Amino acid sequence: QITTLINHKDKPKRSDKTLQAIQRVGQAVNLAVARFVTVGEAIADENHELKEEMDIACIEAKRAGETIAQLTDVASLYHPESDSHITIFTDKTGIVKAARLLLSSVTKVLVLADRIVIKQIITSRNKVIATMEQLEKVSTFQEFVQIFSQFGNEMVEFAHLTGDRQNDLKDEKKKARMAASRAVLEKCTMMLLTASKTCLRHPDCESARINKDGVFHQMRLALEQVIEIVTDSRSNGENELASISIYSGIRVFKNKVEGLRENLYFLSKENLSTMLEVILEHTEDFTDSAYTSHEHREHILELSKQAKMELEQLFSVWMQAQNQNTKDLMEDLEVAILKMCQCMNELKRELHSAATSLATDLLKYHTDHMVLKALKITGVEGNLEAIAEYTCKLSEQKEQLVEMCRLLRHVSGTEPLEITCIHAEDTFQVTGPQIISAAETLALHPSSKIAKENLEVFCEAWESQLSDMSTLLREINDVFEGRRGEKRVYLSLPRPGKHNTNLKALKPVKLDTEEQAKIAKLGLELHLLTCEVDSETEKWEDQENKFVQHVQGMSSMAYSMYLFTRGEGLLKTTQDLFHQAEIFAAEGTKLASAFHGFPDQLHDDGKLLLLLESEKLIPMCQQLQMTAKTSVQGKSATFTKVDACIQRTRNVMTLLCQLLPLCCRLLKKNRVGNSCLKPAPPWKENRAQTGINAQCPERTDEMLGLKSLENHVTNMTFLEQG
């Protein structure tokens, strides 16, 4: 809107339509700034250490917004006597100055708000660590129940805050690191529960203590990594990341070689030679690996030797071209560049084939989880000899999978996928020994229900990581074959089949550019409806009204579906969209039930109209839920399903746009609604506890993968004697 005002072209004749449009834009900017400032002032009231800075920035923003409104007030142009009145037509520099002041002050407010969010995450982390220290020292079940309940609630809050932060991050590498850390915390919270229970039940068992200590250590590392990402402090691992991937090295090397076409002198022979040496050193990870086939090893060594020869040939022609820049020499240089790049492409292809074929074979071989099953059986039997035998087999399996992750990391193709490979490697490295200690504990106490449950949890984590590796392998292949660009794994998003068995056969896909273009118009309609719903909810005097909050939650979900149509936001695949549509439909059904009780508060003829209109909501939501759950195969059918889901979501939002003003009008007329009130929490808690989360706990928890945790926290009957 500001850009529209600044770029407006002065014309001698201005139609009434143009004048009114300019005035509307100016008023819209001023109104938006006023709302923005209101939020900023609320933030300032809750955070006294930044109140002065925030208040100054808010005052500047408000002043700039009012100036823009005054300059775009073209009503005076209709009155000759007010010719001296300054407008956008008489002083365009004024609007430019106001716009600059506005953008500057808004940026200050955003930066200050960001500092507050970071502080919230750090404070939440500190609370989690303090409670973890208490959990480590407990000696009775009663004390553990009490403290773990508190710990669970703190972890849920931390997950909400970090989930929002992950969404806000622009750097794909940081997003991937945050997703990996949050996945560790999510899994470790369940492990900590069972490991602590086992240690309390068998306090003299050394393997149980080792098992528990390992979980606490992992959680501390993950918490620290989250803070590193949030505060933008770099760890040593991140600094080394760029140097450990062969693909990254090959990409940079080829760019340098191809740069010789434009400039023969920007690079030295030594630099280029060193770059190739580093790449070939990393290929030793493949040639030295016991799991690389003889055929792949021979091909890699052969291509490495060829790369050195091609570089020597390139050097020879390059030096000649520097001394004598003739047409023939430049043609020879072009041939040398092409042969060098072709050799590197072949090496890259061979490395990819070696890593992915190993991964395919290993994942297929270990898909039956025979070693884990044997450990569970021999543990219950108390057979220590058999446990020792199978722990050796698991250790061997762990080494194979760790080596697989290292090789896949080299050929992952993108930094986010590379980080996911590192996360997988760490998970296998840590979970393997933890399974062994849990199995040893069970073998020492074969009748212990808690020890058996603990082993199950660690085995499930191993199986889950193997399943994730299959997805990761597919994505690495997709990137290599050019089917996808930068793609990051959302480890905290609901996975197909995790919450709904009907989804197991479906393959998550992304819309291509053509499909996004087709659905863009529908998405825009959905966006306009979310804006209209938000506008209607703002008219309610009671912003803590349950109906308002529930509708706001649904509007937020609809907005995320709109972002999907643009290829943006948290929903990355069609499966993510379908799962979101299911949750949206479920929330709509709940809202419809709430509407049935709503008219009982009213004493007006309008309640009949409200009841009739709200009746339409249930079949609409049922249709959406059925559409989202329907299994489809093929690209065309999937796109049709996406289109249907967006359309049905749009229909629900259209109905809400009609119901909200009717509800608001009836409530005002009858002066009721106090029963729906609840105390307003302070702003600093809003991000984690109000808005969408307050009214849609099931949706939020499933989106963050925390439903199982909260079930454990609220149902503390797990401490039965084992």
TrEMBL record:
Q: Out of the domains of life, which is the source?
A: Eukaryota
Subcellular location(s) per record: Cytoplasm
One GO term of the biological process aspect: Rho protein signal transduction
- This protein is called Alpha-catulin
Q: Which residues cross the membrane?
A: none
Gene name, per UniProt, is Ctnnal1
One GO term in the molecular function aspect is: actin filament binding
Q: What's a GO cellular component annotated to this UniProt protein?
A: cytoplasm
- Belongs to which family? Belongs to the vinculin/alpha-catenin family.
Q: Which UniProt keywords apply?
A: Cytoplasm
First-listed, main subcellular location of the protein, grouped into a coarse class: cytoplasm
**Annotated Gene3D superfamilies:** Alpha-catenin/vinculin-like (1.20.120.230)
Sorted alphabetically, which InterPro entries does this protein's record hold? Alpha-catenin/vinculin-like_sf, CTNNAL1, Vinculin/catenin
Annotated source species: Crypturellus soui
